[in-house]
Amino acid sequence: METIYLDNAATTQVRSEVLEAMLPYFSEEYGNPSSIYDLGQNASDAVAAARKLIAGALNASDKEIYFTSGGTESDNWAIKGVAWANAAKGKHIITSAIEHHAVLHSCQALEREGFEVTYLPVDSNGLVSPEQFEQAIRPDTVLATIMFANNEIGTLQPIAPLAKIARSRGVIFHTDAVQAFGHEAIDVQELGIDLLSASGHKLYGPKGVGFLYVRKGVKMHSLIDGGQQERGKRASTENVPGIVGLAAATRLALEERETEHARQAALRDHAIRRILSEVPYTRLNGDAQQRLANNVNISFKFVEGEGIILQMAMRGVCVSSGSACTSGALDPSHVLLAIGLPHEIAHGSMRMTLGRTTTAEQVDYAVDAVVKTIEKLRSMSPLYEDFLKGR
Ligand code: PLP
Hints:
The protein is α/β, with parallel strands linked by helices. The chain has helices at residues 16-22, 38-58, 71-85, 101-112, 130-136, 159-168, 188-191, 240-278, 305-314, 334-338, 343-347, 360-379, 382-390; strands at 4-5, 65-68, 92-96, 116-120, 141-145, 172-176, 195-199, 210-214, 282-284, 295-300, 317-318, 349-353. The chain is 42% helix and 13% strand. The strands form three sheets. A seven-stranded mixed beta sheet has the order 2-8-7-6-5-3-4, sandwiched between helices. It has a three-stranded antiparallel beta sheet with strand order 9-10-12. Helix 2 (38-58) packs parallel to helix 8 (240-278), helix 3 packs parallel to helix 4 and helix 8 crosses helix 12 (360-379). The two termini are 40 Å apart. Residues 70-72, 75, 100, 102, 147, 151, 176, 178-179, 199, 210, 324 line the site of pyridoxal-5'-phosphate (PLP).
């Protein structure tokens, strides 16, 4: 049975072109970029070229790009680094209730150090309101961190108006763009973003590498102390193959972004339409329009998400019931609760995230599998039986 991978928000397959670009930096070009002989300088040149390419993708300067070990480190560094460096000015931070745990847990860590955090609610589609955001700003607010795109329900936040409000009030604005970078158009100048996190493995690059964009002039402390790498701000010998891979993945993502975006959005809408019309008692989670091109997230009444995943896996389709980090936990996802779903509905949710190799045939096969899965699970559900009797 062919495996149909529809969990591209969890991670993506490294592209062959990316792997090819990385390989020499494991073998022939294994030098340390800090070494001044040729072998070291070749590695240093590769890191510099990667930095330039990624800066260009965001309309930033290469001096504003810092390589990290991934999205989690970038989020931790942005939030803690800015909070610590600006604590004399104020100790209040604004975020949203639906952020990734890399952001939420960084904020909670700061609360234990005496910072105050406002967790903005979202509407039923997962959108943060710019008006509520503005009202939450206080004289001691130093940082706002609002994600570009949600990893579970795909909702895209109104980043431009939020960042504009933050700037007009002297608040530093960070966005976790781990799910958006390489998929959505992002111009940090146009959007007014001060810091941005991204990760290689969400755009067909390697795991364990990412970057943080930091606008020139933003005051921040380091998280990783040691040598002088990354202009003295982020120590540790550079992950040269990873950085080269991240840049190769970025270059390919830029080249293909518009066509892939349109292609996947059409497949996404086809899948959503089919599921909502063929399976009764269902609900689309996340905004129908302001949404990542590859994200389908649907709640099914009277069933459990775990049952859906296992049944879909038996039919050869990889999907998830929330973010990779929350699946396996018994509590329903904080994102689904924040958009107002009752516990029992949130529990019966499924996320399918399409990718660059997903075909129309695969989507139709997966939707057929969803229809059969829900029918089967409901036929075994006492809740559904009671519901049918009571009707
Ligand atoms: N932020 C978001 C929105 C994510 O989806 C993820 C990964 O799932 C992360 C941060 C963490 O990124 P990484 O796995 O590179 O640490």
